[in-house]
Fold this protein.
Amino acid sequence: MQGLRKPCLIGIWIGISTGFLYGQAITKSEPKRTEDLTYESQRLRCNLKMAKARQIGLQQDRTQAQFLLEILTGPACMIESGDTGFGFVAPRAFHIEVAALTALGRLGDERLLPQMRSLGEKGWREVPFYRANLARLQVESRYPAPASFEKLREKVQMYYELVGLSKVHIVNYLRSEAEQQTPLFPPTLERIALRHITEIVANAYSGGVSNAFQLLNDLDYAKDPPSALRVQLAQVPPHRRAKWLIARICQRKVFDVYADYEAQALIDCGADAIPQIMEALRATGTPHRMLLEALCAIEFSKGCPTLCQLAEGDDTALAQQAKNLLRFPVVVRASDW
C-alpha cells in the first residue's frame, strides 16, 4: 500500500471549511455568528468574495449582477483596520468594492444603469472607480464587440465623453509631474480610464480588429505598467501567455504592487498554466513565491492537490512555502485587473 498517497488533509479543509468555493455557497456549513469565525477564515471569505466578483465580470455572467450590487450596498467586509495590497494598497473592503465595480462595468448590462446611478446619489459619485465603470458599463452595452476599426473608435470616443476626460487630457496627464504618484495609492481617474481604454482596444484586437492599437497612438501607456501589460498580453497567443508571464515573473528583481497584476494575469490563465508553473519551479530550483501563489489560486476550488503534493515532497524549502500557502491560501492578487 506504499504506492498510495494519503490525502492532503489541509487541502480537504480548504475544499470544505470555507463553504464558499468561488461563489458556490455551502449553506449548511455557514456559521450562525460572524464572531465564531477565526480571523483567517474571515479574511479568506472576503478574498473569495473579491475573486468571485472578478470572475463574474470576466465571464460576463449577468445572472450574478445582484451579487455585485449587494457588495456595494450591503455591510462592508470589516475584518481589519489596516490596508492590504491587491494591485494597490487600500482597505480590503475597498478592494472588494473595486472588484464589484470593475465587474459591473464589464457586464455592460444597460438594465443595471438605474441601480448604478442610484449608487451615485448615495455618495459614490466622486469615487474614480465608480465614475470610470459607470462609463464602461454604458459603452459595453452600446458596443459589446466592435468588429471594425470605425466602431471601435466610436466606442472609445463614447467612453472618453462619458468618463468626462479627453484623450488630450490623458496625454498631458501622463506627460506631467502629476503622473509620478506612488503606485501604492489607489489609481487616479486618469489611470483607471487609461486601463479601461487599453483593455477595450486589446479586446478588439484579440477579436480581429488588427489595427486597433492605432487608437493608443500618443498615449504613453508604458508609464502605467498594468496598461502596458494589457497591451503586451493581447499580442501573445493565448496558449503562450502562461509561459510568457512565468518568464516575466521569474526575471523580476523588484516585487512591487505592479507585480500583482502579472500574478493575477497568470492566475487567469487557469489550469492550463499548472504544468508550466511546475516546470518553472523545477527549473529554477527555488520556491518562487509568486508562482506558488498563482498555483494556489488556480487550484483552490479543487482543494489545491498539486500544492499538497509539493507540501509533502522532499524539497524542504518548497515544501515549507507550500505548507504556508495551504495554511494561509492566496485566491486573488489584483482587485481591478
User: Anything to note?
Assistant: Residues 1-7, 9-36 have pLDDT under 50 and may be disordered. The radius of gyration is 21 Å. Residues 163-235 form one domain.
